[in-house]
Design brief:
This protein is α+β, with helices and mostly antiparallel strands and 235 residues long. It contains eight helices and eleven strands. Helix 5 crosses helix 7 and helix 6 crosses helix 7.
Length: 235
C-alpha cells in the first residue's frame, strides 16, 4: 500500500532558517538557536500546541504536516490552517495569553521556539535582531489574515472555494512546495467551517470547478489546471 506523503519544509524555506539568517548565522545548526529552540519535535493528529487562555510562551514553527487553529467554545469556528514553514502563535506576540487554540491536523513535527526565554538567553544584539524579525513576520502574518478575510467576504461559494485553493497554493509555493498540485490536509467539513459554507456546498463547488476544467481533484489531491482563471474568480 502506498504511503501518504507528508509535506516537509526544507530548512532554507522555514521560518527557523530565516530566524537564523536574521541572527547573522549561516544556518539553523548553531549554538545560539539551540539555546531557545527544541527541534523536530514530533506531533500526532489532535495534539494541542496550546489552548485559548494558556500563557504565551512558545512559537511553533511547522516543519512537517499541517496544523489548525480555532476559536474556543461551542462553535469551534476554524480560524486558519498552518502549512510547513509557517509560525503558529505569532499573532499572539504581545499578549499575555493565547486568544485561540491550535493543534496538529495530522502527524508531523515542529520546531518549538521558547519565546519567553529570548531576553534571558540571547545577547542584546541577537535579541534585537530576532525581535525585529518576529515583528516583520507578525506583519506578514497580518497581511495573510487580511487576505484570508477577503476570501471569507467574497459574495458567492464558488469564489470562496476557488480563492481558498489558489491562495493555499501560493502559500505552499512561498515555502518551496508546488503551487499547482498539492494535497488538501483538511476534510471537506473543515474547509466548509473555515469558509463559512455548508459541507454540501463545498462538495458541489469542487465538482463544478472540476467539470469546468479548472481543477482536477481526487480524494484530497488537487491540481489547479487553470490558476489564472481561478484568480480571476476572486474579482
Amino acid at each position: 500500500m502506498a504511503t501518504r506523503q507528508i509535506p516537509v519544509v526544507h530548512c532554507r524555506n522555514c521560518a527557523l532558517y530565516k530566524t537564523a539568517r536574521i541572527l547573522g548565522l549561516e544556518s539553523p545548526a548553531c549554538e545560539a538557536l539551540d539555546r531557545v529552540v527544541l527541534r523536530d519535535h514530533p506531533i500526532e493528529k489532535g495534539d494541542a500546541l496550546f489552548h485559548s487562555g494558556d500563557p504565551v510562551r512558545h512559537l511553533y514553527l511547522v516543519h512537517s504536516g499541517f496544523c489548525i487553529s480555532h476559536n474556543s467554545g461551542t462553535s469551534q469556528r476554524i480560524r486558519g490552517f498552518h502549512i510547513p514553514g509557517e509560525i503558529v502563535g505569532i499573532e499572539d506576540i504581545g499578549e499575555e495569553r493565547h486568544t485561540h487554540t491550535a493543534c496538529a491536523l495530522e502527524h508531523g513535527s515542529l520546531c518549538q521556539l521558547d519565546y519567553s526565554r529570548l531576553e534571558t538567553t540571547l545577547t542584546r544584539d541577537e535579541l534585537v535582531r530576532v525581535q525585529h524579525y518576529l515583528m516583520v513576520a507578525a506583519a506578514r502574518h497580518a497581511r495573510l489574515l487580511q487576505k484570508e478575510l477577503l476570501i471569507m467576504g467574497l459574495p458567492n461559494a464558488e469564489q470562496r472555494v476557488a480563492a481558498f485553493l489558489f491562495n493555499l497554493g501560493q502559500r505552499l509555493e512561498s515555502h518551496g512546495f508546488p503551487a499547482l498540485a498539492y494535497r488538501l490536509p483538511m476534510s471537506r467539513d473543515e474547509m466548509a467551517n473555515y469558509l463559512g459554507l455548508a459541507p454540501e456546498t463545498v462538495m458541489r463547488v469542487l465538482k463544478t470547478l472540476a467539470r469546468k476544467g479548472l481543477i482536477h481533484i481526487r480524494t484530497r489531491r488537487v491540481e489547479l489546471l487553470q490558476p489564472e482563471t481561478l484568480r480571476n474568480l476572486l474579482t
